[in-house]
UniProtKB/TrEMBL annotation:
S-adenosyl-L-methionine listed as a keyword: no
Name of protein: Terpene synthase
Protein's organism: Amycolatopsis magusensis
Keywords: Lyase, Magnesium, Metal-binding
E.C. designation(s): 4.2.3.-
Cofactor needs: Mg(2+)
Family note: Belongs to the terpene synthase family.
Pfam families in the cross-refs: Terpene_syn_C_2
Enzyme class: lyase
Amino acid sequence: MTSVDAPPGLRPFYCPIEPALHPDVRLIESRAIDWIDRFRFYRDDKDRARVIGTNGAEFYARFAPSGITGNLQVIAHWVYWAFAFDDACCDSGPYSADPAGFLPMAGVLQRALESPWEPVPGGGPFVTALQDIGRGFHACATPSQVRRFCDAHRAWLFGVAWQIANRSRGRMPSLAEYTAMRLNSAGGPPTLAMLEIANGAEVPAAELAAPVVRALTEMTMLIDSWDNDLHSYRMEADEKHTDQNLVNVLSAQYGWTAGRAMDEAYALRDRVMTLFLRTRAGVDGSAALRCYLDGLGHAIRGNTDWALNVPRYHNYGEPMPHPGWTDRPRDTNPAPPPIPAIRWWWRLCELDKENP
C-alpha cells in the first residue's frame, strides 16, 4: 500500500504537443541572475541558490519559444521573483498560515506593482524588485497588456490568500473548492497574461474575453496547476507541507491511498487535456489570438518539461526518473467531471456543437 510517508512516483504524462525552447534562454538566464543579485530578495547563499535553481528563465523560454528576447527578460525576472515570493511568503515563512498578516502585505505589494514609479517606504526587496518589473513591463508592453497583467496578478494574490486562510484553520478543501481556488493560487493568471507581452502581440479584447478563449485559458491554468501538484508532491511530502495538494484533496475526500489518488489525479488532468485539445482545434481568429492559443499549448508542455528537471521539485537532490510520455489519455469520458467550477467548459463545447 502506498502512503504519504512513501510518496508515489510520477506517471507518464499525456501531452501530444511538441517541446520547444527559446534560443536565447542562456543569455536571459545570465542577465536574470545579475538582476537577482542587484535586488537581493534572498536571505543567504543557500536561499540564493534556491531562487536561481527555480530555472525561471528556462520556465518561460518554453512558454514563448519565439518570443521577443527583451520582453522575455523582464518576464524571467518576474518568474524568479514569483517563485522566491511563493517560497518566502506563501508556502512557508511568517505569512504562510496567517491571512490577517498576508493580506496587508499583499495589498501593499499589489499597489506597488500598479504604481511602480514612487518608492514605497519600508517596502523591502520584494517590493522594490516588483516595482522594477512593473517599470520594465511599461517599457516593453502596451497599456492594455500591462493592465491585464496587473489584474491577473491581483487574482493570484487573492487565490493565495484563500489557500492561506484554509491552512490557518487546518481545513482541507473539497475537490470542488480546491479546483476553484487552484485556478488562481498556482500563479496561472499572471503567468498566462504575460504570453501577449512575450510575443509582442496584443489580442483584441473581444477575442480574449470570448467564453471559449476564457475556457481554454482556464483549462491551461488548471492543467498546469494540477501538474505542479503531481511534480511537487514528493518534495512537499519531504518538507511536511502537502496539506493542499490535489493528491491529498482526493485522498481526504474519497479515502484513497496516495497511490490511488495520484492515479485519479492523472485521469482528471487527462480529461481536461483532452477537452483542451478538442476545443482549441475549433477556434480561429486574429493572428494575435492564434499566437496566444499556440502559447497555451506551449505552456502546458513547457511546464512539464521544465518541472521534470528543476531542482525546485527534487529537493535539490537527484531528479526523479523521467516518467516518459503516453499517447493515450487515462480517461476518455467526454462528460464533465463532478466539479461545478469547471463544468461550464464542457457545456460551452456542447453549445458550440449545437450552433456551428
